[in-house]
Amino acid sequence: AKGKAFQVLSPESLMTIVSSPKDVRDIALATNDQLSLHAAAKEILQPEYTMNGFNWHDQRGIEGIGFVRTLRTLLTQHLPQLTPGTRVIIERTFADEVGRGGSINGNICLPDQEALSLVKKVVTKISGLAFFGRDRMEDDAFMDAAYYYNEDVLYGAEVLRLIPQFLVPVVGKVLPLFLGRQRTFYNGLVEMIEERVNAPSPDKKYVCVLIKNDVIQWIIDTSPKSNPWSPGRMAFEVMAIWFGSVQGLATTLTFALFNLSTHPEYIQPLREEMESPAGGEFFVKGEGLPLMDSFLKESSRWTPVESVTTRRCALKDFTFSNGTHVEKGNWICIPVGPMLRDASYYPQPDTFNGFRFASPELVGGAPSIQPEGPSKFTDISDTWQVWGTGRITCPGRYFVSYVMKHIMVHILENYEPEMVQKTGKHTLDWRTLTLPRPGVKVDFKPRA
């Protein structure tokens, strides 16, 4: 479309697709009562039926946005303290699933341990530590429900999208009967929150021991004070954040693992960086490793999870500064997939260049291939819409980067990863999503 807006009829509404920097900035400047991510997400996910009865407001911020401070500030600041527990989880999970000192069954993962399954198990446990502390880490039923929560929501929502609209309320009332893990997850969260809310105030002498530092506690602390939330409402907030973190993180990391396995020329320089002072700095601060950072960013450019992002539902008629008009109830989206393969934004877009975003002095001094120069995985820009747009960007992106780097470091420390299936497609497309193809395995040979 060469930056021009165009329209597509989707199952939900008439979508206006925009990509020019000016149009993107118009979206960023729109007020909450003009364009709504919440309304679009509610239309897709049908949370009233797929998230144990959660039915959020169409307009962002009506009940506060404490989750932004929870993820962007409190969780990010807490990342260095998570490192010891994170490292233990990664080491134990890989030892259990792949085998101590190497892979098993002739150096090939067992059929039920394909790449996505392994990565998601590790990511779920690390996210559990960050979200719940150690309160429910040993509760197998609860953690199993947390592991499958995102899939259950997506499958339930897909059923509702495929049936006639008049049947949605009928089928929606029956659907929770098949989503028992939802209730397990929700009830476990409510129980945890009630225990904390009703706990007596700790003696100041022991406050440093008793205070919790995890997402659940921060949601409790940042919830509205003028109109206090119930434990159930807080549980819904945690469930919404969980949905936005685990599946996308696991999928993005799986693609990075695929790219590392198919581009082994990056293994040695990444190891050298990891074993340099930059590696020690990462373990202390929870951020850094610029070559690894560039590799993860290029992997996300090469295989984005979503081909369309920044979905917004017009809560009232909306007109872009160039005159493009969107009627109330219709959607606006950004085609992030095609943008990430646009040569005007990303030179040589059809070549995987793991260090395209790194500083030139780190990769031999050649000029940066990117017109804007070096950049970080977690950066936001008009042309890098992976994390969102304007004021509504992913507040947990620093946690995502942190987890991905720790798991990649462990793999580089211990294994020589290779794709078991050397040829064929490793991904599949489902609506606007790109997902790892089921059964695709990575061979984790012991590091020489």
TrEMBL record:
Subcellular location field: Membrane
One GO MF term: monooxygenase activity
One GO location term (cellular component): membrane
Predominant place of localization: membrane
Key words, A-Z: Heme, Iron, Membrane, Metal-binding, Monooxygenase, Oxidoreductase, Transmembrane, Transmembrane helix
Positions contributing to heme binding: 394
Required cofactor(s): heme
InterPro entries recorded: Cyt_P450, Cyt_P450_E_grp-IV, Cyt_P450_sf
Pfam family, one: p450
Recorded family membership: Belongs to the cytochrome P450 family.
PANTHER family noted in UniProt: CYTOCHROME P450 (PTHR46206), P450, PUTATIVE (EUROFUNG)-RELATED (PTHR46206:SF5)
Name of the protein in question: Cytochrome P450
